[in-house]
Structure formats: structure tokens, C-alpha cells
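Field log, afternoon session.

UNIT: design team B
ACTIVITY: writing a sequence onto a fixed backbone
BACKBONE:
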């Protein structure tokens, strides 16, 4: 398995990326109400929160499947989607955290809204670069 990811470094990065996705999938799909309370989101947004979480859960499950099948060979679209998704959310997260909405009473936005996706963006860029000999097969 380690060889399939070109060594320990990229395998550990992959697992960290997967664990982060699993954490946010759990928070937004299974622990939705507490997740929404954490950011001061009204309970009426339960369905949209779970809808967004379903995309994260999907990529988490695909990430588990990549491990199950023995490695990332040919999985360029998976890594590309994760990179683009986290890049877009870095921008949208920053825009949201610095917006007027963030200053509304009861809203609890933090820098996590753009720092976490920025970290995922960097991790995915490193994975795409480091695994390019495997994922583009």
C-alpha cells in the first residue's frame, strides 16, 4: 500500500486528507444540529447543511474505496475534484468570514472557514504533484 502512494510521506498526507474529510462528513451529515449550533446557523438550514455534507461524505467514501482497491492508480479526477472543491471553499470561506453576515448577532464564523480548506488545498496540490505518475495512468 505504501508503494502505491510513492512512500510514507504521501500516504500519510492522503490519510490526513481522508481523516479531515471524514471529520467534516460526520459533523455535517450525522452531527448536523451540533455542527450548525457551533457556527450559529439556524435549524431551518438542516437540509442544505446535510446536502453540502453529502458531497463531503461522497468524497470520503471514494477515498476509502481507493485504499480498498489498492491505491490511487487512474484516480486523477478524485484528486482534482478535491483540489478544486477545497480551493473554491477557501475563497468562499474567506468571503463569508469577512462579510457583514459574519457580524450578525448569533453568527459564530471563525477563520476555520478558510484556513481548513486552504490546508486541504495545499495537501491536495502536493498529492496531485507527488502521485502524478500513478493517478494519470
Amino acid at each position: 500500500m505504501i508503494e502505491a502512494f510513492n512512500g510514507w510521506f504521501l500516504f500519510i498526507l492522503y490519510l490526513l486528507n481522508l481523516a479531515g474529510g471524514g471529520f467534516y462528513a460526520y459533523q455535517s451529515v450525522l452531527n448536523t444540529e451540533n455542527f450548525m449550533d457551533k457556527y450559529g446557523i439556524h435549524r431551518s438550514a438542516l437540509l442544505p447543511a446535510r446536502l453540502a455534507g453529502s458531497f463531503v461524505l461522497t468524497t470520503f467514501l471514494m477515498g476509502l474505496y481507493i485504499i480498498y482497491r489498492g491505491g490511487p492508480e487512474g484516480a486523477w479526477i478524485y484528486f482534482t475534484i478535491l483540489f478544486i472543491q477545497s480551493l473554491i471553499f477557501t475563497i468562499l470561506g474567506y468571503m463569508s468570514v469577512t462579510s457583514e453576515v459574519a457580524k450578525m448577532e448569533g453568527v459564530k464564523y471563525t477563520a476555520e472557514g478558510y484556513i481548513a480548506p486552504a490546508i486541504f488545498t495545499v495537501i491536495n496540490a502536493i498529492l496531485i504533484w507527488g502521485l502524478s505518475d500513478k493517478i494519470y495512468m
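LOG NOTE: Residues 3-135 form one domain.
NEXT ACTIVITY: expression trials, pending approval
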